[in-house]
Amino acid sequence: MRVTAAVVDELGAPFRVEELDLDEPGPGEALVRVVATGICHTDEITRHGDLPMPFPCVLGHEGAGVVEAVGDGVIDVRPGDHVVIGWPSCGTCRNCRDGEPRYCARLGEAVAGGGRLLGPRAGESALRRPGGSSVHSHFFGQSSFATYALTWADALVVVPRDAPLELLGPLACGISTGAGAVFNTLQPRTGSSLVVYGAGAVGLAAVMAARLSPATTIIAVDLHASRLALATEFGATHVIDPGETDPVAEVRRICGGPADYALECTGVISVLRQAAESVGMLGTCVLIGGAPAGAEFTLDHLDTLWGKRVVGTLGGSGRSGVLIGALADLHRQGRFPFDRLVRYYDLADIDRALDDSRRGEVLKPVLRMNH
């Protein structure tokens, strides 16, 4: 079938909206009419080579839409279902079987292999230019910078028909990453202290989640006053501008010592060091932000040896259905107002959306598809 998609032809190239041909769903697959898809920092760093997605390709991995058709053997979703497209996974490796499909042993291939992960056509792209040349597909199992996406049906999360479908795509990655880092990775103790470095979309989602936890001290650190103001509205008990004061010292002043938990949401190595230094013995620093490929960091050995934990997290951990479903419910209940981070753009305006995001004018750009 013919679809409209934003194609990146080569490393660092701009997005170009054009017509492509997309395969019909085969065994285990589903065709989703994309209503909207979020733009995530991972899309941008992949375009510049920090994830090894082959080119030319269609990116996009925060899609939500309506199931149009399913292939043989699909029983859990049906045409007409409203869905968020979750992360792909093999379903059979140890991590998948243990309930952690975000850490599928085939994750690299699943998110950036450029073709199907599973099925009789595994490894093949589902997209072609009208002349027949292949365009790599299945970025994070979906390539949803397009009007339609072909995905593995088991990755889909069905949401209520009355849910705001054009809003829910970011629950597939960015928003669930911040919230899931709190809910699944940290699980804060009663009365604990938590500091979030970077109050972008991911960091603000973490602040919203922390407000729903028993943590009683929630600190947001960012250079932008507008983001710190939002963090306060979303539940931060304290805010720090690192341009005005040493954030590590200020965290220790607020907490009367080290914080219990820190979340690093920027991917900036110097900020990562600050986040790690903000927690002390038996404290936990969670790495969330995506640094450039090959980035390395160092920590003081003795300070870390004394019971400090530094852990990475992907996509909020856990299973997509549970996390996405819970966040959608919390939003419906008015307890998780991530809609306030979103600004909508048409697919044709993808470059403007990216520019606005880079300048900090928008926290979570979302592309709406015109069908």
Question: How would you summarize the topology of this molecule?
Answer:
Elements: E1 2-8, E2 15-22, E3 29-38, H1 41-47, E4 57-58, E5 63-70, E6 82-85, H2 94-97, H3 107-112, E7 127-128, E8 134-135, E9 148-152, E10 156-159, H4 165-168, H5 174-186, E11 193-197, H6 201-211, E12 217-221, H7 225-234, E13 238-240, H8 247-255, E14 259-264, H9 269-277, E15 279-287, H10 301-305, E16 309-312, H11 320-332, E17 342-346, H12 350-358, E18 364-368
Helix pairs in contact: 5-6, 6-7
General description of the model:
The protein has about 375 residues and is an alpha/beta fold. It has helices at about 40-45, 95, 105-110, 165-170, 175-185, 200-210, 225-235, 245-255, 270-275, 300-305, 320-330, 350-360, and strands at about 1-10, 15-20, 30-40, 55-60, 65-70, 80-85, 125-130, 135, 150, 155-160, 195, 215-220, 240, 260-265, 280-285, 310, 340-345, 365-370. Helix 6 (about 200-210) links the parallel strand 11 and strand 12 (about 215-220). It is globular and about 65 Å long. The model has no long low-confidence stretch (mean pLDDT about 95).
